[in-house]
Amino acid sequence: MINHSMQILTIDPAVNLVLLLLILSSFITDITKKKIYNFQTYPAMVIGLLLGFVSSGGQGVLMSFLGLLSGMGLLFLFFLAGGVAAGDVKLLGAVGALKGSVFVLWTMFYTGLIGGIMAFAYIIWKGKLLSTLKSVFRILRHPVKGRQEEDENMKLYLPYGVAISLGAGWALFTVYKG
């Protein structure tokens, strides 16, 4: 008889190591190159699925796959709206493939907090607080027209992969250790 709890205990450190390598490399490349590369996310997705299979067979693959889908699904609408880049979507999907759907939800919770703080600090640092607030109120008053009037020069780059990486790290070390 196979002791599944022993397999899971030996798999968790490997999953956590891959996750840490993924979020560290994504953090660095998003800051330095403004990009999260496929060679970072795709292997992590595959490793997540493989380790899911090794730990729990078909059910483990299913749990990893659902984590992958939930991670990508949470950011996909933001991607369509132009709020995040494809690398951010794939990064959260890879996090989900490694750690599952519940971990993705915690990661997104912390990512939202960190991303909000980053955005607020960034617009203050760039001296765009007043113009950003005007833009937000214009969009709230007239969702379609307000967005059309938004000047291309008003768009600020926020490395959201950094927020996702920090959110995943926060979730890993505080809330969800399994």
Topology:
Blueprint: H1 4-32, H2 38-80, H3 86-99, H4 101-125, H5 129-141, H6 143-149, H7 160-175
- What is the N-to-C succession of helices and strands? HHHHHHH
For this structure, the quaternary state is single chain
Major beta sheet summary: none
Measured between the Cα atoms of the first and last residue, the distance is 23 Å
Q: What percent of residues are in strands?
A: under 5%
Please describe what this structure looks like.
This protein has 178 residues and is mostly helical. The longest helix is centred in the first third of the chain and has 43 residues, at 38-80. It has one domain (4-175). Residues 1-9 have low confidence and may be disordered. It contains seven helices and no strands. It has helices spanning 4-32, 38-80, 86-99, 101-125, 129-141, 143-149, 160-175. α5 packs antiparallel against α6 (143-149).
Features:
disordered N terminus, 7 helices, 0% strand, 178 residues, mainly alpha
Task: Write a brief caption for the model.
This protein has one domain (4-175). 83% of the residues lie in helices and 0% in strands. The protein is built from seven helices and no strands.
